[in-house]
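Annex B. Sample input.
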Amino acid sequence: MTKRRILFFAEAVTLAHVARPIALAATLDPERYVSFLACDARYSRFMASDTTQALPLHSISSAQFLKSLARGSPVYDLATLRDYLREDLALIDRIQPDLIVGDFRLSLSVGARLAGVPYAAVTNAYWSPHYRHRSFPMPVLPMTRVVPVALARSLFQMAQPLAFPLHCRPLNRLRTENGLASFGSDLRKIYTDADHRLYADDPDMFPLDGLPATDCHLGPVLWSPPMSVPDAWKAIDASRPTVYLTLGSSGSVDTARKVLEAVADAGMNLIVASAGASLPSLRHPRIFVSDFVPGNAAVALSQLVICNGGSPTSQQALAAGVPVLGIAGNMDQFLNMEGVVRAGAGCVLRADRIDHAALAGRVEAMLADAPMREAARSIGQRIRGKPLNAAFGGFLDGLPR
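Annex B, continued. Sample output.
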């Protein structure tokens, strides 16, 4: 039987959009599939694989991406998407895949259709038009840092009908230039358009109504950097609670510093992943700081995870049965944490409203919260009972040859 060729596109604006394609490619049986992973060189340290061929792909810088999010402005302009489209089409023509799997590579909405290749988008259920809870929480924006939250929320709701069309315009114009229909002002369609949507979330936490047969709820797509456990962790005092702190590649350095300062003297062990950020130099026997850490090992040692509220780390924590405190900034993080809070497995704080005393108190309260620990444990059992390789393999087996 001829092996099917699968081409993964990872939009490297954050590590999350790289980690999920890496994890999915790793589940493929090399006897049945030939896999390729296109990604920007900035994450080449994580791309080594015996079964998946790495290919170069340009992405805008993480700094540019995060700057746009912080301002509330569109992430991509039309010129960037045109460049992406040209590169996508050249790569598709070179590889001749049977299936394209993309993670936040919005240009594939056009490129895959022009190339005539089936396209599956890896995304989160809370961006789906079929998501049961259809509200858009207010992210951290320049005005929210200086305006009272209630007033800022009212202003955000008034501005939303004008702002969303601006975010949709670049891809809509790329589509109409190439003979495809516009999606209007529906940002959910802009972010999730594909022939198939692969939702990387727990379906019980993020329910979808009327899910089309073309789509699949994979469950959490978990990934951890391929590295050994630091020797320094052997000194962790097991008689004290351990907190794992990481704000990821999309977290604010300033926020990370504030959180670290707030909980550093709380009498607990603190495992910190800086993700390359420059953090305060703290010489403390209970604080263990590294650039990147094996996240699966870090959550296994912890009783609480503090992160930016994004789905990759919160899912990793919940899969291990550990509650999550999300210090959220962008809309994606708030949407994810709404599901975590609704499930009783965590709390969310705004990154623009960090109070040192309140944060330290929240951490202590969560460590003592038995119902929250039980909710996280229950979710973890459910996640571990649905292996990713079976879910993704079942989706692939259901595709026509």
